[in-house]
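Backbone-to-sequence.
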């Protein structure tokens, strides 16, 4: 039962992915043709450079946000929950939501 469910889920995901790939490749081909018609090869090169720079910028911002969340939210919350489980008669799993909430509120206040 589990194997057939997993197979059907993966099959559906594969079908969706191939459909999305076909959709995006068609849109990319249309965009490439429009740029070549209106701006030529230099315009195509310029648009590829702009798209690459934007992609690098977006990825770098996502990495920066992820590292900041780890540094200011995840690590302090886990450390505080561990200390609370050692010093107080509560378990780690009970203390963790409280410490995550406290660190989140501190981040909101800190700005």
């Amino acid at each position: 039962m589990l194997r057939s469910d997993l197979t059907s889920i993966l099959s559906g995901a594969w079908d969706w992915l191939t459909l999305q790939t076909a959709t995006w490749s068609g849109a990319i081909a249309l965009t490439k043709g429009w740029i070549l018609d209106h701006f030529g090869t230099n315009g195509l090169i310029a648009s590829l450079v702009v798209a690459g720079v934007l992609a690098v910028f977006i990825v770098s911002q996502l990495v920066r946000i992820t590292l900041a969340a780890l540094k200011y939210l995840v690590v302090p919350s886990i450390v505080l929950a561990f200390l609370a489980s050692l010093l107080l008669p509560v378990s780690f799993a009970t203390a963790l939501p409280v410490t995550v909430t406290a660190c989140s509120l501190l981040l909101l206040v800190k700005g």
